[in-house]
Amino acid sequence: MKPSTFALFSVLLLARAPTAQGLNPQISVSGTFIDLDPKVQHVPLDPSQESLRPPPPRIPETFDIFIGSSSYRDGYRCGKTVMSAISRATYPDRLRIGLVELVNDGDVKCLDEYCKLAEAAWPDKGTCPYQDQIQVDTQSADVARGYMTARHRQQKLIQNEEFCLQIDAHSQFARGWDEMLVLDWSHADNEMAVITTYPHQTYHDDGELPRYGIYPHICKTYRYGNGYVMFPVCGMIANSKIPQLEAFWSDSFSFGKCHAERNVPVDPHMPWLWNSEAFLRSAILWTHGYEMYSPSENGSVISHNYTDNENEQTWGTAFDEETKTRETELSNNRYRLQVGAPFKGPVDTVELDKYSFGSARTYLQYLEFTGMTHEEGVEDIAACRQLHWVPYTNASAVESIVDGWKLRPDVKGAKSRKQLEAKMGTQLSLEEELSKIDDFFTAAMWFAGGIAASMFISNGGLSSVFRCCRRRSAPRKSAENRQRKYVSDLQEGIEELRADIYKLEVQKQAIVRCTPTNENVWNVVAEYFRHFRHGYLTPLMSTEPSVDQFTETLKPPQSHAQLEFLQATMASDVTDGALVGPEALLENWRLLSLYHTDVCVELKSVEIGSQDSLIATISIGVTITENTLRYVYPHLISGEADGGERREWLAIVAKLLNQRLMMRGRVHFYWDDDTGRVKRLASTADMVTPMLRLLGSLEEVAHVFNGALISPDCKFMK
User: Fold this and answer.
1) In the chain, N or C terminus with fewer CB closer than 10 Å?
2) DSSP conformational letter for 716
C-alpha cells in the first residue's frame, strides 16, 4: 500500500466514531441480561482517580500486521487459514505471517497447502504468491512440549510490525478483516488494548461478515483444584458497537499492538502446561498495563473451526514418561508459585522475573478486578458485569511504552481548553461526544413521551390520571399511611395506563396491517431470510427500578425486530396451511431454535411461481442436543419401552446426539399486490433424508417420527 493511502486510512480510522446504538450493549448470562455502558468503562471506581484515563490509541501513517499461529499436524486447515487471511485482506501486501508448524513425516505441510490454493486463485501471479511474506519455523511433533513452548517460538518471528494478531491455525477471515479489525481496535480508545475472544464457529466460508447479533464475551471462571483456572465462554454480548472491557484473554483470537508481544513474552520454561495457560497470560498482560476487550460485532471478523484435528495427538513422543512427569511437575509448581497456590516438590524459577507479572499493577488487583479468589470453598464472582478500568499503580511502566504520554499530565501550563485536551490525550472531546449523544436521546425520549401522552389523552386515558391524582390528594391520618396509599394507587394507575397503551397498540397494529405498503415481493423474500438466517432471536430484556426504588424488575423488550418485520410484510391472517398470523409463524421459528442449537438458514435460489408468487429453495442446518431429544423426541428417552425395544431406542439416541441435520427446504411466498403483503406462506423442509443418512434405515427413521412433536416436514405439532 502507498503511504498516502495509509495516511488517509489512518485519518478515517481516528475520525470515525461508534454509533449511538453501541452505547447500550448487554451481557447474557444464564438467561439474565445485564446492561453495560461503554461511556463509563474507562472511568475508575475510585472517586479520587475518576479523571484518569488509559493512553489514547496511536495509529501511524503506515503500518503492517503480523499474524502468528502454531499448527500441530494440521497442515490442510492451516493452509486454508493462511489463504483466507491473505485473500480476504484489503491490503494483503502489508501482512506478515509467522507459523510454528509441528509435523511428522508424511503430514501435509501448511505452506504447501497454501501454495496450491494461492496458485489456483492467482494463476497470473507466478509461483506461490505472497510466499515471501510467510515465515515458517518447522519442528518435529515428536519433540513438541506443549502450547507455551510453541508460542514462545512463534513470538520470535515478530520483527518491527505495528499490529500483531494471534489465531488458531484452523480459522477463517471475513472480507476486509484487516481494515475492520484495526478500526475496532481504535474504538477501544486505549493504546494498551488487546481485542480477544473465543470466535464463533465457522458456518459459511463465503468471506462475508456474519451478523449473529450476539458474540462471545469471556467473563466467568471455573476452578478445578490446585489453583488451576479455566474460563468457558459463559457470557454472550449483544448490541456491541465498540469493544467492551473484559477480564480474560483467549489464544484463539488476540489482536493489539506488537509491543504487547515484545513486552510480555510467553514463558518457555513451562512445558506440558495444558490448563490455565490462558488465565496466566491474562493476569500477566493486565499487570503489565494491558486491557482485554471483546470485539464489537464489526470487529468479530474471525470464525473458528472447532471440529477435531484428524491427526493423532502425539505430543512429545520422543520423551520418556519419567522426563515428561518431572517437567510437568516443575511447570505446574512454577504456575502455582506465581498465583500463590500451595504446592509440593521442586519448582523451576529460571528467568521467573522476566516472564511473570508486570509492575504496572499487582496480581492482587487483578484478582479484585476479576472477582476471583484462590481460597478453597469461596466462589468466584463472575466478571459478567460492567467492568471499570483500573489506573496503574506504577505508571512509568506504561509511560515508557507510550512515549510522551503521562497518566497524570502537568496541566498547570495549559492556557486553553485545546491545550488541555492535547495534554489529556483528547479524552475530553470523546466524553463530550458521548454526552451530546446522551442529551440527544434524552430530548428524543421527552419528545416521544409527549406524543404518547397526547395520544393517550385523546383516547380517553385522561380519566385514569385524574382518578390516580384524586386518590393521591385524599387526606390521611399519618405520613406512613399516606405513603403506603400513594404507592398502592400509583401502581394501580400504572397498570391502568399500561392497559390503555396496549389498547392503543392493538388499534395501531390494526390500522398498519390494513394500510398498503410500498414493498415488493423480491425485497420481502430477501429480508425474510436475512432476519431468520439464524432462526429465532430472543429479544433483549433490561431491568428497571420498581416504584419503591429499592428493588428492580425485568423490563419487557421494547421491540422484536423479527416480529415487527412479519407484521409489516405479512397479512394479519397470513397462513401456511396450519398456522395463522405472523405471531404463529414466529412461534414455529422460536420452537425450532429453542430445541436445537446452531440454527442456520441459507437461501440457495429463488424462482418465479404462479399466482404472483416466488419460490425460495433453502438449506436449514440444526444440531441435535439433549434438549432436542428430551422435548422434541421424548418417546426415545421416556423409558416406557421394554427389553429389546428399549435398547433399540437408546441406540437411535446415541446415533442422533450432537449430530448436525442439514435439510433441504422450500418456502412459497404468495403475494397480494393490492396490500403489498404476503398473504400465504407455504414452507416445507425434508427432515427424512438427513435422518436416514444418520440412522441408516427407514425403520429407525419411522421410530423417530412416530411420537415426535415435530413432523417430517419440520412443523411443530400443536
Assistant:
1) C
2) B
The three cell numbers of residue 364 are: 492482587
CA angle 294, 295, 300 (to 5 degrees): 130
**SS3 labels along 86-116:** HHCCCCHHHEEEEEEEEECCCCCCHHHHHHH
Closest by alpha carbon to 168, among 184, 147, 185? 147
The continuous run of DSSP H or E covering 684 comes out as strand 677-686
Inter-CA distances, 563 with 272, 502, 509, 603, Å = 51, 16, 12, 20
CA distance 301 to 322: 44
Alpha-carbon distance values, 649 to 315, 633, 634 (Å) = 39, 11, 11
Residue 67, Ramachandran bin (φ over 0: left; ψ between -120 and 50: alpha; else beta)? beta
- Cα–Cα distance measured from residue 668 to residue 308, given in angstroms and rounded to the nearest whole number: 38
pLDDT reading at 267 higher than 90: yes
Strands 253-257 and 193-196: antiparallel
> What confidence score (pLDDT) does residue 17 get?
35
Q: What three-state secondary structure class fits 331?
A: helix
* Sequence-ordered list of residues with C-beta below 8 angstroms from that of 422, at least 6 positions apart, any chain: none
Q: Which long-range contacts (CB under 8 A, 24 or more apart) does 566-570 make?
A: 567/509, 567/512, 567/513, 568/512, 568/517, 569/517, 569/519, 569/524, 569/527, 569/528, 569/677, 569/678, 570/677, 570/678, 570/681
Measure CA 635 to chain center. Answer: 36
| Interval 641-672: pLDDT, tens | 555 666 777 888 888 888 999 999 999 999 98
Q: 188 or 306: whose pLDDT is higher?
A: 188
Decide if pLDDT at 421 tops 80: no
Q: How far apart are CA 21 and CA 278, in angstroms?
A: 32
Do 78 and 113 meet the contact criterion of CB atoms below 8 Å apart?
yes
CA proximity to 242, closest of 294, 300, 182, 187: 187
Residue 370 to residue 199: CA distance in whole angstroms: 21
Strand order from edge to edge, sheet including 677-686: 570-575, 677-686, 660-672, 613-624, 596-608
How far is the C-alpha of 623 from the C-alpha of 693, rounded, in Å?
A: 15
For residues 612 and 619, the answer to whether their CB atoms sit within 8 Å is no
Of 193, 194, 241, 189, the residue nearest 430 (C-alpha): 189
- Spatial separation of the C-alpha atoms in residues 166 and 164, rounded to whole Å: 7
* Distance separating alpha carbons of residues 527 and 570, to the nearest angstrom: 12
DSSP E strands, 590-652: 596-608, 613-624
Residue with the larger pLDDT of the pair 417 and 648: 648
Band (pLDDT 50/70/90 cuts) for residue 516 is low
User: Among candidates 163, 197, 169, which has minimal Cα distance to 70?
Assistant: 169
- What are the cell numbers at 666? 422450500
Cβ-based burial of 566 (10 A; exposed 0-12, middle 13-18, buried ≥19): buried
